[in-house]
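This part of the workshop introduces the protein records we will be handling. Getting from the letters to the C-alpha cells is the skill we practise here. The record below serves as our worked example for the rest of this section.

…
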Amino acid sequence: MKKNTNIDRRTSLKIGSLAALGLVIPNMSFANQSTNRILKLTKNDIVPKHFPNISPEVIEDVVGKSHFDLDRVKELVDKRPELSRSVWEWRFGDFESAIGAASHVGRRDIALYLMSKGARPTIFTFAMLGHFQVVKSIIEASNGIQKVTGPHGISLLDHAYAGRRMKDKMTETEIENLERTIDYLTALGNASGEKYIDVTKEEQEKYLGDYKYGNGEKEGFTINVNMRKLLSLGPIGGFGGALYKIEENKFIYNGAPSVIITFDIQDDLVKSLTIYDPDVTIIAKKVS
C-alpha cells in the first residue's frame, strides 16, 4: 500500500509556526526516510573515541616525528594544518610542542615547515634558527628569560648549538647570525640552564635496570641512558626522560623541580627507587 505523504492544513500551519521560531522537529511521522538518515558519520558509521578532540595517538605521532621525520610530519600536517601547533605531555609535566621538538634537535627544515603551517615559534626556535636580533630583543624585554629551559630541561644555549646541525644547508648569513646568537647567549653567562651534579658512566651502571611497583605488565620503570648520555626514567622498555642529579642518589625528572626520584642503596647495590610526585609517591623494587 502506498504511503500517504500529504499533510493536512492544520499540520502545515503548525509546522510553519514552529519554523518561524527556528525550531526543528527531525522525527515527525511525516518525515521521509532520507530526513532520518542525516547522521552519516564515517565510512564505518563509527564516531572516533576522542571526537571532537583529535586522537592523542595522532598528537603524539606529530610531536614524536617532529624530531626526525619531515615526510611523516608533512603527511599529517598537510591534511590538518592545525596539527602544526600540537603539544604533547611525555610524562610528569614534560610538555613539548611539535616545533619545540624540531628546535632542540636542530631540525631547521621541520621547524620552518611547521611555521609555514601555523606553528607558534618560541625563543628556543629563534635561537636554533639563529635569529639573533629576535632572541636579543626577547631577552631585553623579559629579563631572566634566558635561564628558562625548554622541553626535557634543555637550555636555550643548547638550542642554539643544535642549530649547527644543518649548517651545510644554511647560507653564510644564516651561519653568521647563528654564531652571533651562540656568542651572545654564552656571554650572558646564565643561558645554559641549571647546573647539576655530573654522573660518571661507572656510577650510571649501578642504577640501570627495571623496577616494579605492581604485578601488571606496565607497572614499573626502566632506568637507562638516553641519547644525551644522561640517566633516564621511562615506562618498562619505553622512552625515558632525563634524570638530573641534585644530591647523592637523588634526582629530578627532566628539569621538573616538583618530581623527585631517590634510590635506596644497601651494600653498594640499588634495591629500589622512590618517585615523589606532588600527588603520588611510588616505591618500585629493582628486579633486573
Notes: Residues 1-7, 11-15, 18-26 have pLDDT under 50 and may be disordered. DSSP finds ten helices and ten strands in the chain. The CA atoms of residues 64 and 159 lie 17 Å apart.
